[in-house]
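Async update (no meeting this week)

Hi team, since we skipped the sync, here's where things stand on the single-chain job. The sequence we agreed to prioritize is pasted below, unchanged from the tracker. I ran it this morning and attached the output directly underneath so nobody has to dig for it. Comments welcome in thread, and please keep replies under the output.
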Amino acid sequence: MVALIKDPVQATLVYCSIYMPDRFSQIQFKPVLTSLCNKWPFEKNTLFCNINYNCNPLNIFIGIDDTDNLETRGTGFHARMLGQSLAEAGLFEMKSVSRHQLLVDKRIPFTSHNSSACLAGICTGNINELIEHAKIFLKRESAFDSDAGLCVAPEEEVTPAIVDFGNRAKREILSIHDAYRMIVNTSVYLEGFLNTRIGLIGSLAAVGLRAGGNDGRLLWTRNLRETTGEFPIREFLERAGIDRVIERYHHMSAVTTDMVAEKEFPAPDLSSVIRISEWCRPVMIGGKITLIAEKTDNTEPYEYQSASKDYIKSISE
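Output:
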């Protein structure tokens, strides 16, 4: 496992001995250590060491952000391709990919929407190899002028502070230093690549939001994008790896997923027939991948249809 060295003196010694050997004897450690937990003093997030993480298979989240420019495919596409690449290497069993909307503000540089993505699944190999594979993939596939970021976190290492960081990223302007402070004393890997590296902020936020369980829409579950048409609800849920379905009334106004999570909605009979559109996107509510179904009128041969694109966007952006 790649983990942050928890002792700040040891961490500083490791960093200096590896990356600044010619200046090692000249370092004044006191000001560096004083600022370590308040303002990250180095240009690289390299205070990591290799240890053996004995939990295998291991539930993990992989967050990525800022991998594109206006001429290339978006971060959601790169997330799906990264999951496929890791799976082909025998390192990862991808369960789902979610999109998370972050704060849109003119003071924040972003490509188009300022959204990040999180892969959820199981590390089926060596996690150090998984991280190295993901790093190589992002460096190779990200746009040359992007600011890609990568976060890899065992599920049990995602602290309440990291979840809160994700929620803050939806309403506040955060810094690289803010992100680094969140992973102190955890076994969370976090690194930025290319240019300014600010994508690491969004990658950590994506992990926090996905782990929190009340944010984002699903870009990928097994068979989701390939499955359209009419099905008994139970069959579709099993086919697409979706946890549950809830019913949306037509008079419901646009709300966010965390507001939806505070309410209780009826669940359709699982034997009912639902029409799945070409743009079907479940959302995360209460830690579950949730399909929102809209009841149709009596003129249709099916009782429900998957919620419209406009509605799903209104509660997930």
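Quick observations from my side:
Residues 1-10, 12-52 have pLDDT under 50 and may be disordered.
The chain has two domains: 48-212, 226-316.
Reply here if anything looks off.
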